[in-house]
Amino acid sequence: MFFALLLFIALLTAEGRAQQPAKVHQIGYLISGSPAPWANRVEAMRMGLRDLGYVEGKNITIAFRSAETADRLPEVTADLVRLKVDVIFATSSTEVEAARGATKTIPIVFATHSDPVSLCHVASLARPGGNITGLSMLLTELAAKELEIMKQALPHMTRIGVLLTLTAPSHRPVSHAVEAAAQKIGVQILAVPVRTPEDLDGAFAMMARERVNGFLAVASPLTRSQHARLAELSLRHRLAGMFGTRENVEAGGLMSYAPDLVDLTRRAATYIDKILKGAKPADLPVEQASKYQLVINLKTAKTLGITIPPLVLFRADQVIE
């Protein structure tokens, strides 16, 4: 009788444990700018999490917070900290800078960081240290390469405007890298700083006055979120543009050279998974983008009266006609 009672108690205890709901993890998703242009990136993150067994409403929830301007990012990040989310997803250096200022304990994962080491967001790629890790595209090298490709596609160009986003921490070192690259290929640079979407009209008017032959829009949350506006302005002012995302070209920009940002975002889900299972960001090495794609919009080239050299077209991964 005694042993039967013990068995009965053990069964009740096991059943109670089995019926306890699994922990629901909360992920904070930080967005700089209007949420609409981020839709494909948001879906990529959801797909990456689903592939790893996470289902919204079952074992995870995602708290989205967006700031129309970078100046408001600290405010919306503080809200995620108050929610005590398990991980903050801060895709680029702009969002990471705000998240780092808000917490030193909640893990932060990035997907398209420009240069995490030089900005002191991680100690090194191999050993990040601290609470931040993810995937990087090393924008300083990428922007210099974009300038080089632009010169090959438009060899007549001697003066190029460079759109630099003042609120993007990575654009300070990028400006020096672009200046050095410009000297090597024999072109002059006109730095055109912008802070908000409202600055874009004035920026293009300035480039038109200064008679630049084209412009390089260095990738940032601002240039990504304003892809349609940038395409419209480039056509209005008849200026050829090199961009940092394929979305800019799909919207009507001339060309882009960039990693697959959607793929990087999807891959960032693996970092979130490891952290939710107990790994420390400090011990998860930063991965670098390995594949870059050249996309050219021939329809825009024809509108601008530009002929892209066959060799450059041959190198393109995608040509939009």
How would you describe the overall organization of this protein?
The chain has 321 residues and is of the alpha/beta class. It folds into two domains: 18-137 and 260-290, Rossmann fold, CATH 3.40.50; 139-259 and 293-320, Rossmann fold, CATH 3.40.50. Helix content is 44%, strand content 21%. The protein has 13 helices and 13 strands. Strands 7-6-8-9-10-12-13 form a seven-stranded mixed β-sheet, sandwiched between helices. The chain has a six-stranded parallel β-sheet with strand order 2-1-3-4-5-11. Helix 4 (93-102) links the parallel strand 3 and strand 4. Helix 3 (73-83) packs across helix 4 and helix 5 (139-153) runs parallel beside helix 6. It is elongated, with a radius of gyration of 23 Å. It starts with a helix and ends with a strand. Mean pLDDT is 90; it is low at 1-12.
Throw out a few tags for this protein:
13 strands, alpha/beta, Rossmann fold, 7-stranded mixed sheet, 13 helices, 21% strand
Shape: elongated
Q: In the CATH classification, which architecture of the largest domain applies?
A: 3-Layer(aba) Sandwich
**Main β sheet profile:** 7 strands, mixed
Under CATH, the homologous superfamily of the largest domain reads Response regulator
Structural class computed from helices and strand pairing? alpha/beta
Question: What's the mean pLDDT score?
Answer: 90
CATH class of the largest domain: Alpha Beta
Low-pLDDT runs of 5+ residues are: 1-12
CATH topology of the largest domain: Rossmann fold
Give a count of the beta strands, DSSP E runs of length 2 or more.
13
Individual helix count: 13
Q: What is the first-to-last residue Cα distance? A: 83 Å
The helical percent reads: 40-55%
H/E element order: HEHEHEHEEHEHEHEHHEHEHEEHHE
Rg over C-alpha atoms, rounded to the nearest angstrom: 23 Å
- The strand order across the widest sheet is 7-6-8-9-10-12-13
Strand content: 15-25%
Number of domain units: 2
